[in-house]
Write a sequence for this structure.
């Protein structure tokens, strides 16, 4: 046991002495959670629109004012019909509302119940389809509501996230990403580096069992990650104002489980990679990409084709993020995330098993 | 041939913060000499050598190598020297011939000249069959000999060797020193650090560094007389006893 | 010049001899182009709807039918009280609740319809807001139809929407140019940095430092291979985009390549500058990952810059990929001309110059 503790101490010294790396490992998550937590949002807002209207009648001007008054739209001025394409292509406007030259006559006709068409044409830059779809929806409702007496626009409201702060959405995702990156990357690289410099062999001939050496390497990183967990949870609660309405103990528990999983993943990577560059690339690119893409962090899982939904099931971050969303935002009792906990626990067990086996194979 | 010393160092110092790695060293090296630069680990040998090669700026003092100032003319010096560091530094993932071509090209030798010298070099080392072997798969002793030959490929005026025979078996060390003699015979000045005292005996002159300072300087025979010692090893131990720095 | 050639030859040989890198440079783009476009759909479909029908009339049933028939919605259940619909949201079975008020049908006939209320789950902000929006349209349309049947004027056709540049509203088309950028960030930012720190750790860089090779030559020899690889990879993925997704640039390939060259210069310059300032691989990688994460997540690649708060939008002005994202999407989808996007090109050029100067300045042969 004494041997084991001295190894833990040695590893801790390594980390603490490499001050730059330690600062990065501790500060990076803080910066990222703040930056992404506040900045990332898929909300639709601010559509710049221009208007084409051959004769700017009073009715047209009133409609334009109504659209401009909506917080989603910013009025960029009147333009000539031949400028439409240029305005959209150069990005000066995201949408152009084209009022027909007989707009007044047409609207009057519809009031009388006569058929009319194309009083207004809305041309949207649909390169971002969601912006276009939502923008077209809003603008249509505004235009219709502006002149129709009989139609009442429905009342709308959002639950849980009434101010539509997307921070709520991305914080769990960022947690899922950061923990894996930091833990897996740090452990895998530190193990591979010892192998590269040959110091690992010295350790392995010592009377301490190899498995203990590995745990000794992982404990300081686990503690470092716990510090990160604490700082992220504090930031999420007090700076980002996450509700944390669920069980806090549950949240911490599942996060610790996830950290262990990440460390096991790091160990596994270290057995696969024979130099630091490879370890970095595997733990960085090959982990980062699926987590950002397939875990539901940014892109909704239910939109993916069946095969990829299947693939997303083996990505641990998916389950962690789902559980954190439930616990942090929806505030469900811990029992409701039992499924996620069990899946993560099973994954951790498998990863540790495989990693240790590979590690032993490598020793022989 | 001019008779100015090829390396001339006056009061050269290097400080890292409050730590004085090299403390006002002064010495000259004549052309064609094999100059042994001795000292225990941490005595400041490598730091001093790095300053002479233009890898590191001196904190104070002055020095010239091949007539150029180490403070301001590092790049001119680099054209005229060869260097072999204590870490093996040829490219493991290139073949023997590719490494030779790379360094020949870097020093501006023509393609034909590189080929000619490569053949001579490989013959001398009896490496012909290994020309297309990856350097990473050669045994250490071979690598060291190759590294030396590559460092002198462009016929530098001085070649700096930083513990070139560390970790090499006695037979290979012997062969290595033969290479050094051949280079010296062709007129290259050799500046070599080592802590094998038997190797010190092979040098024309040696200096011994302790705690960043040069404590002894002269031909091996002279030094043995001066310290009334039977071997360089004894000279060294007498001097090293007073060392404050240990690694 | 000859020195540069010799060093370039060395870099290419080392690259090709690496057991991992050449494979990565091929497999990584393939993975990104074949798998990721299927993932990055933010098309909001299959929105689960739970209806609370307090009216139970023909009109309310008509609205329910309308919702059921829509592509966007999946009608889950029709309940009698808000509470049970709410439970469904909590269980994740529904995203939107539509509550039809009592007396809905009567009020239409009277010409002053009672308001339908729409409640959405806001945990997924995009789904919440788009779902609400689609639902509003569905309700308005149904109302207009019902009014028409009552003999009141219908107004639905008054406004026509044209979705220019991406008429089918395919989200994939929006993402593919951005994915190409992500690829270039990774290949041209990471690999040169790794390569350089690798030489530092092995000590081979010191052997180069005692030779007369100039800083510029050495740095160029490190960068040029990745510029070439980046440009080749870009051509490769553009061909894939065309062959697999039928997405060809609407604008000129030259405009894309000009921007790509500037961007690749910027990223590789940054990578090498970081490597120059790092002592170990670990440090270099961490700093690089930090930047890459910010670039990937903040530059409008994944989420629109316009949705960010003002201060974050201000930060994005200092992120070179932002300008490239803008150029790629505009040229690819809208066929924008260089002249129309010249500020983006100019800023990208400034970044390229800046980062490459930084690279040359931070590389020290002598310490």
């Amino acid at each position: 046991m004494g041997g084991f503790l001295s190894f833990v101490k040695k590893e801790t010294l390594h980390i603490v002495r490499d001050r730059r790396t330690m600062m990065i490992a501790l500060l990076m998550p803080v910066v990222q959670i703040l930056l992404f937590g506040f900045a990332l949002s898929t909300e639709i807002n601010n559509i710049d629109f221009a208007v084409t209207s051959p004769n700017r009648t009073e009715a047209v001007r009133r409609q334009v004012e109504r659209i401009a008054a909506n917080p989603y739209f910013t009025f960029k001025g009147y333009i000539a019909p031949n400028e439409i394409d240029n305005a959209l292509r150069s990005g000066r406007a995201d949408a152009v509302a084209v009022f027909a030259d007989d707009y007044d006559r047409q609207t009057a006709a519809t009031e009388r119940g006569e058929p009319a068409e194309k009083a207004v044409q809305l041309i949207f830059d649909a390169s971002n389809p969601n912006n276009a779809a939502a923008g077209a929806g809003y603008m249509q409702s505004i235009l219709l509501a502006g002149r129709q007496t009989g139609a009442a626009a429905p009342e709308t409201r959002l639950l849980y996230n009434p101010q539509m702060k997307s921070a709520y959405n991305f914080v769990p995702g960022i947690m899922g990403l950061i923990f894996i990156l930091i833990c897996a990357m740090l452990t895998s690289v530190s193990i591979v580096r010892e192998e590269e410099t040959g110091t690992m062999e010295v350790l392995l001939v010592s009377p301490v069992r190899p498995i203990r050496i590995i745990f000794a390497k992982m404990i300081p990183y686990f503690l470092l990650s716990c510090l990160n967990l604490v700082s992220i949870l504090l930031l999420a609660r007090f700076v980002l104002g996450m509700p944390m309405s669920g069980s806090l103990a549950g949240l911490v528990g599942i996060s610790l489980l996830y950290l262990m999983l990440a460390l096991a993943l790091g160990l596994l990577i270290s057995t696969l990679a024979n130099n630091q560059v490879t370890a970095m690339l595997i733990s960085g690119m090959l982990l980062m990409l699926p987590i950002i893409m397939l875990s539901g962090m940014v892109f909704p899982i239910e939109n993916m084709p069946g095969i990829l939904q299947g693939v997303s099931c083996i990505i641990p971050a998916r389950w962690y993020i789902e559980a954190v969303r439930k616990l942090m935002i929806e505030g469900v009792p811990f029992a409701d995330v039992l499924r996620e906990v069990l899946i993560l626990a099973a994954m951790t067990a498998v990863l540790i098993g495989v990693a240790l086996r590979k590690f032993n194979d490598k020793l022989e | 041939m001019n008779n100015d010393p090829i390396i001339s160092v006056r009061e050269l110092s290097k400080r890292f913060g409050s730590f004085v790695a090299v403390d006002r060293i002064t010495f000259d090296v004549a052309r064609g000499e094999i100059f042994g630069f001795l000292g225990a680990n941490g005595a400041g040998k490598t730091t001093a050598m790095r300053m002479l090669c233009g890898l590191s700026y001196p904190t104070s003092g002055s020095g010239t190598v091949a007539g150029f100032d180490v403070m301001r003319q590092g790049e001119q010096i680099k054209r005229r020297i060869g260097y072999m560091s204590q870490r093996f530094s040829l490219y493991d993932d290139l073949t023997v011939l590719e490494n030779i071509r790379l360094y020949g090209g870097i020093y501006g030798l023509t393609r034909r000249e590189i080929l000619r010298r490569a053949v001579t070099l490989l013959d001398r080392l009896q490496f012909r069959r290994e020309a297309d072997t990856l350097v990473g798969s050669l045994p250490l002793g071979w690598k060291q000999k190759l590294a030396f030959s590559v460092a002198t490929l462009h016929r530098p005026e001085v070649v700096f060797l930083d513990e070139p025979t560390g970790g090499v078996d006695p037979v290979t060390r012997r062969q290595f020193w033969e290479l050094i003699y051949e280079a010296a015979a062709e007129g290259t000045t050799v500046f070599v650090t080592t802590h094998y005292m038997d190797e010190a005996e092979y040098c024309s002159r040696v200096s011994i560094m302790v705690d960043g300072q040069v404590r002894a300087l002269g031909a091996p025979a002279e030094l043995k007389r001066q310290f009334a010692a039977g071997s360089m090893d004894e000279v060294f131990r007498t001097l090293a006893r007073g060392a404050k720095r240990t690694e | 010049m000859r020195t540069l050639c010799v060093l370039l030859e060395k870099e290419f040989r080392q690259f090709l001899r690496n057991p991992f890198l050449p494979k990565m440079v091929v497999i990584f783009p393939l993975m990104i182009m074949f798998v990721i476009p299927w993932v990055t759909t933010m098309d909001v479909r299959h929105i689960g709807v739970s209806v609370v029908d307090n009216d139970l009339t023909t009109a309310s049933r008509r609205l329910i039918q309308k919702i059921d028939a829509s592509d966007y919605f999946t009608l889950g259940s029709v309940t009698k009280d808000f509470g049970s619909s709410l439970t469904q949201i909590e269980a994740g079975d529904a995203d939107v609740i539509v509550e039809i008020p009592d007396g809905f049908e009567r009020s239409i006939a009277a010409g002053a319809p009672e308001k339908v209320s729409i409640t959405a789950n806001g945990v997924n902000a995009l789904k919440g807001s788009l779902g609400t929006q689609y639902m509003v349209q569905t309700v308005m349309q149904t109302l207009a139809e019902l009014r028409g049947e009552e003999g009141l004027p219908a107004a639905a056709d008054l406004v026509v929407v044209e979705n220019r540049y991406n008429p089918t509203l395919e989200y994939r088309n929006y993402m593919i140019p951005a994915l190409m950028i992500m690829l270039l960030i990774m290949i041209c930012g990471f690999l040169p940095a790794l390569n350089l720190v690798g030489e530092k750790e092995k000590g081979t860089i010191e052997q180069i430092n005692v030779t007369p090779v100039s800083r510029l030559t050495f740095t160029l020899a490190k960068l040029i291979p990745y510029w070439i690889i980046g440009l080749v990879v870009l051509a490769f993925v553009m061909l894939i985009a065309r062959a697999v997704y039928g997405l060809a640039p609407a604008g000129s390939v030259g405009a894309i390549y000009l921007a790509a060259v500037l961007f690749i210069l910027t990223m590789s310059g940054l990578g090498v500058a970081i490597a120059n300032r790092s002592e170990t691989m670990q440090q270099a990688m961490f700093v690089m990952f930090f930047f890459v994460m910010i670039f990937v997540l903040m530059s409008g690649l994944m989420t629109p810059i316009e949705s960010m708060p003002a201060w974050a939008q201000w930060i994005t002005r200092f992120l070179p990929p932002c300008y490239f994202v803008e150029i790629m999407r505009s040229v690819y989808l809208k066929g924008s001309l260089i002249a129309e996007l010249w500020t983006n090109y100019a800023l990208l050029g400034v970044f390229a110059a800046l980062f490459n100067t930084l690279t040359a300045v931070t590389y020290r042969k002598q310490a």
